[in-house]
Design goal:
The protein is an all-beta fold. It has one helix and 28 strands. 53% of the residues are buried.
C-alpha cells in the first residue's frame, strides 16, 4: 500500500461517531439547498463496489463535473461523472452520466479534475504505481488527441501517486503528487503539453522533484498569475508538518519564497503532526492552505495563511494559523475555496459527517454562516467525508466526497446556500 494511502487510512479510521447534525433552524447561509438533489444532498452508487469523489469542477453552464474512482468488480477505475445544476446525473455525459476508465487492468484512481478553456475535462491520479492523466471530451468520452487513446501514464520514479492538477492559461497541465526516489518520498511536479506529452521546457525533462529533507507528500497545487507554481502538502516521518514550495514557471525553486530556499515548513507547538491537503491563492497573492492538525487528542481543521514571500501572515488569526474544532470526533479539512468577498470556505470531514467552515478575511469563524457557529456538519446517513468543494457564481457551496459504510462507499454531494 502506498505510504500516503496508509496515512489516509489511519485518519479515516480515526473518524469517530457523528457529531451534531445540521439543524433546520440554521440561518440561510450554510443551510442545505432544497433545490439540489433530495433536500440538498445526492448519493450515487457507481460501479459495483466502493466509489468516492476526489475532485470537482464547475462548468460555465453550471453543470458539476466530479472525478474519483469506482470498483469495476476486479480493480478500481477512474470514475468521472457529470451532474446537472439540480443534482441529477447528466444523461448526455458518458453512459447515464458516468464514465469509467481502466488502464491495463491496473488499480486506477483519479484524485483531481480540471476543465480546459474549450470545455474538455482533465483528470489526474495514478495507475498502478505511476502518474496517470486522462482527458475527456465534453460528452464524457476519452479524447484520442491526448496521450495514447486519451490517457498518459508516466513513471516518475518508484511507487508514485498524483494528487492534484492545475491548468495554465496556455493549456499546459501541471500535475503534482509524490514518488519514491532513492528510498525517500519527495514532492513531484510534472507538466504536460496540451497533447499529453511531458513538457521538456519545464526543468528540461517535464518533471521536478522537491526534497524537504524527509518523506514529502504533495497534495495541492495552484498557479499564480505570473505563472509561478505553489505546491502544498506535508513533510515528515513519525510526525508530519505542513510543507509548501513555490516553483518558477520554468520549474526551478523560487528563491524569492521561503527566505531564499523556495520552501517553507510550518510546525505547531509541541511538534504535533499536521498535514496540508489543499491550497488556494487570494487576489492579493497571499497563500491559503487547509488540512488538519493533531491537537494531542483529536485531529482538527487547520488553516494557514502565508504572505507572498512565504512568511506566516500574522493578520490571519493572530499568528497565521487557525485551528477549528467542529465537535466530537475527528475533523480533517481536504479542500479550500475563496468567495468573491474574500471569505474563506474550508471543507472536509467533521466527525463522521460532511463538514464545512467559513472564515472571515481575518481568520475568525464567520458567525453569519451555520446559524452563528461559523460551520455546518451534515449527516448523509452513514460514514461521510467531503473531499472537494466548489463555489458557484451565485455563492452557493457544493461539497463532494463519499457516503457509506464498510460494505460500500458511494459518490456523495451536498449544496449549501452561501447567503
Amino acid at each position: 500500500m502506498h505510504a500516503a494511502r496508509r496515512f489516509a487510512c489511519v485518519v479515516t479510521l480515526a473518524v469517530g461517531v457523528a457529531a451534531a447534525a445540521q439543524s433546520a433552524a440554521f440561518a440561510a447561509a450554510g443551510s442545505l439547498d432544497p433545490t439540489f438533489g433530495t433536500a440538498g444532498t445526492v448519493i450515487t452508487p457507481v460501479g459495483s463496489g466502493d466509489a468516492t469523489i476526489q475532485g470537482m469542477a464547475l462548468q460555465s453552464d453550471g453543470k458539476i463535473v466530479v472525478a474519483g474512482y469506482a470498483w469495476d468488480g476486479t480493480s478500481d477505475d477512474f470514475a468521472v461523472a457529470r451532474y446537472t445544476t439540480a443534482g441529477v446525473l447528466d444523461p448526455t455525459f458518458g453512459t447515464g452520466g458516468v464514465t469509467l476508465t481502466d488502464h491495463a487492468g491496473n488499480p486506477d484512481r483519479a484524485q483531481a479534475v480540471a476543465l480546459q478553456a474549450d470545455g474538455k475535462i482533465v483528470a489526474a491520479g495514478f495507475s498502478g504505481d505511476d502518474f496517470a492523466v486522462a482527458r475527456y471530451t465534453t460528452a464524457g468520452v476519452l479524447d484520442p488527441t491526448f496521450g495514447t487513446g486519451g490517457m498518459v501514464v508516466t513513471n516518475v520514479g518508484g511507487e508514485a501517486e498524483a494528487t492534484a492538477l492545475a491548468i495554465q492559461p496556455n493549456g499546459s497541465i501541471v500535475v503534482v503528487g509524490w514518488a519514491e526516489l532513492r528510498g525517500q518520498w519527495n514532492f513531484i511536479v510534472t507538466r504536460y503539453t496540451t497533447a499529453g506529452v511531458l513538457d521538456t521546457t519545464f526543468h528540461k525533462s517535464g518533471q521536478v522533484s522537491v526534497d524537504f529533507g524527509s518523506n514529502d507528500y504533495a497534495m495541492g497545487v495552484a498557479i499564480q498569475p505570473d505563472g509561478k507554481i505553489v505546491v502544498a502538502g506535508a513533510s515528515g516521518d513519525a510526525g508530519t508538518q505542513i510543507a509548501v514550495a513555490r516553483l518558477r514557471s520554468t520549474g526551478g525553486l523560487d528563491k524569492a519564497f521561503g527566505g531564499g530556499t523556495g520552501k517553507v515548513i510550518t510546525t505547531y507547538s509541541g511538534g504535533l503532526a499536521s498535514w496540508a491537503d489543499a491550497v488556494a491563492l487570494q487576489p492579493d497573492g497571499k497563500i491559503v492552505v487547509a488540512g488538519f492538525v493533531y491537537d494531542g487528542t483529536h485531529y482538527r481543521f487547520a488553516v494557514v495563511r502565508y504572505t507572498t514571500a512565504g512568511a506566516l501572515d500574522t493578520t490571519w488569526g493572530g499568528n497565521g494559523k487557525v485551528v477549528t474544532n467542529l465537535g466530537v470526533g475527528e475533523d480533517a479539512a481536504h479542500a479550500v475555496a475563496l468567495q468573491s468577498d474574500g471569505k474563506i470556505v474550508v471543507a472536509g470531514g467533521g466527525g463522521d459527517d460532511f463538514g464545512v467552515v467559513r472564515y472571515t478575511t481575518a481568520g475568525a469563524l464567520d458567525t453569519t454562516f451555520g446559524g452563528g457557529n461559523g460551520y455546518v456538519e451534515t449527516d448523509l446517513g452513514a460514514s461521510d467525508q467531503a473531499e472537494t468543494e466548489a463555489i458557484q457564481p451565485d455563492g452557493n457551496i457544493v461539497l463532494a466526497g463519499f457516503s457509506g459504510d464498510y460494505t460500500r462507499l458511494n459518490f456523495a454531494l451536498a449544496r449549501y446556500t452561501g447567503s
